[in-house]
Amino acid sequence: MNSDHFLSRVQKSGGFTDTRAAEGVVAAVLTVLAARLGPGTAGALADRMPAFLSEALEERPTGAAERYGVEEFCRRVGNLTGSGAREARRDVEVVLTALVDAVSPGQLTLILADLPRGYAALFGTAEPHWPTP
To answer: How far apart are CA 79 and CA 131, in angstroms?
Structure first.
């Protein structure tokens, strides 16, 4: 998926009036996602993703991933976009469901493996079933 198609999908799904608004939401969601993912996962994804998606992942803070749940994830996106809790959650879901189609199934598995239960719903997918040791 190229950047124009991705941004068009986000713009339409999110009801944004223009591409610039969609770009701002995409940047906010990917910035928060990068901070939440481990550095190895964020870096590996950035290396395999189109440039328009990899930039925010490459700019993640150094060090270990920050640990927080879905509500805090959405709150942080809302802080970056200036939106309330419900709007931020909708924005997160719009971007992450579009991301599912922009990455390979292996990349999606890598992302979900690095996130705790509850995040899969933001991607519009079921929780992965990992084997128990």
So the answer is: 36
Which residues form the domain of 25? 3-123
Q: What is the pLDDT of residue 55?
A: 78
Residue pair 112/120 in contact (Cβ under 8 Å)? The answer is yes
**CATH no. for residue 54?**
1.10.490.110
Give the pTM: 0.88
Gap between the Cα atoms of 119 and 15, Å rounded = 23
Identify the CA nearest to 81 among candidates 20, 6, 124.
Answer: 20
Give 7's DSSP letter: H
Two structure tokens written together for 93:
């879901």
* Alpha-helix runs per DSSP H in 37-125: 39-48, 51-58, 70-81, 85-102, 105-113
